[in-house]
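Lab channel / #folding
Pinned by the channel admin:
"Please post every new chain as: sequence first, then the structure tokens as a reply. Keep commentary short and put observations after the output so the thread stays searchable."

First post following the new format, from NK:
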Amino acid sequence: MTSVQGTPDPGKELKKRETRDIVRIVAAVVILVLLIAFVLKNSQTVRVHFIFFSANVALIWVLLICILLGVVADRLLVWRQQKGRRDAAKKAR
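Reply from TO:
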């Protein structure tokens, strides 16, 4: 709805914002529940063989470390590609 002068109805904007906030809260709760279930399902201990030694580690830590290493590798590759593009742009000038 709009008022007589054509400005948006503030009540409608407020409802939109409230709906958006509710969706975000529900999504956050669902993600939190899934994360808790993930941790509980992967809490058993596994034997991990590293290059020079072996260790018994909770599976969740192995998974989280692998995720962290993947994120770091991704960021390093992106950083290297951006640096290469910047260097190429400098040479082109």
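NK: The chain has a mean pLDDT of 85.
TO: also worth noting, The two ends are 53 Å apart (CA to CA).
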